[in-house]
Design a protein that fits this description.
The protein has about 100 residues and is α+β, with helices and mostly antiparallel strands. About 45% of the residues lie in helices and about 20% in strands. It has helices at about 25-40, 40-45, 60-70, 75-85, 95, and strands at about 5-10, 15-20, 50-55. A three-stranded antiparallel beta sheet has the order 2-1-3, sandwiched between helices. A hairpin with a 6-residue loop joins strand 1 (about 5-10) and strand 2. It is globular and about 35 Å long. The termini are far apart.
Length: about 100
């Protein structure tokens, strides 16, 4: 059974949010960190490489629908989503990479 992730990244000052979908969260986070050097992507330009929220799905269509739903939200609603499970907006990258 495949697992898909909808995730939210932010920058160090927590001023920008990036929403994405992937089937390999660790690999995708590494790509975001690497792309920061080239700054050709949205996440790279705004230094969005800090994971603050993710959701798991077993159906890619549900994951894509959720990503689109979240992307359509205003910033306040995205902030509230993060705050449900991560009220201090802690960086969660270590949970994915096994550092924590």
């Amino acid at each position: 059974m495949n697992t898909y992730y909808v995730y939210l990244l932010t920058n160090p000052k927590r001023t920008v949010l990036y929403t994405g979908v992937t089937n390999d969260l660790a690999r995708r986070l590494e790509e975001h960190i690497e792309h920061e050097n080239g700054r050709r992507t949205f996440a790279g330009r705004y230094f969005c490489n800090l994971l603050v929220h993710w959701e798991e799905f077993h159906d890619i269509n549900q994951a894509i629908a959720r990503e689109k739903e979240i992307k359509g939200w205003r910033r306040e609603k995205k902030d509230a989503l993060v705050a449900i499970n991560n009220p201090e907006w802690k960086e969660l990258n270590g949970l994915i990479f096994g550092d924590i």
